[in-house]
Amino acid sequence: MKHLSLSGLCLLSILFSTFLSAQEIIPVNEPNYRRALLFKSLPEKVTLEDAKLNSLLNVTEGNIVKIEMGSSAIEGKVISAVNKYNNIRSVVIRSSNFNGATLTLSSSTRRDGTVKISGRLISIQHGDLYELEKQNDKYVLVKKNYYDLINE
């Protein structure tokens, strides 16, 4: 009787392990909240004048630009500049002094003539970023945590 119950237990464990190994395991990416902060020397908020934003949106590919941010500045090369349908403009600037960061700005003109501008200054290797927001009729780059915006 002992051998029969031991055999049954072995058979049951083999069936159970086969069932578990047949299940598809979905990998989960856990956020790394200890990522280095790239923009820690820059202010929490940076107001950008409409004229500066428009000049950035009108720059052509290959040009070097500089954006004042408090006591520091973001410098970089325009790696993409697109103007589509006469109402959409987009510019991507790769930073030369903040390693890995890119500034993306997009502008769209609505049917009523109003212009909406959106943008981000982000590096996927770091734990902080800037997002462009409109506050009190002014555009402001607001510092945020990477995982407040990105889900992995």
Q: Mean pLDDT, nearest integer? A: 84
Secondary structure tally, helices: 3
Order of helices and strands: HEHEEEEEEEH
Q: Please state the oligomeric state of the protein chains shown.
A: single chain
* Largest sheet report: 8 strands, antiparallel
In what order do the strands lie side by side in the largest sheet? 1-8-7-6-5-4-3-2
Computed structural class: alpha+beta
Tally the beta strands: 8
Question: Which runs of at least 5 residues are low in confidence (pLDDT < 50)?
Answer: none
Shape: elongated
The radius of gyration computed from the alpha-carbon positions, rounded to a whole number of angstroms, is 26 Å
Q: What is the terminal separation in angstroms?
A: 54 Å
Q: Work out the strand percent.
A: 35-45%
Helix content: 10-25%
Describe this entry's structure for a reader.
With 152 residues, the chain is of the alpha+beta class. It has a domain at 45-149. The protein is 22% helix and 41% strand. It is built from three helices and eight strands, in the order H-E-H-E-E-E-E-E-E-E-H. The chain has an eight-stranded antiparallel beta sheet. Strand 5 and strand 6 form a beta hairpin. The N and C termini lie far apart (54 Å).
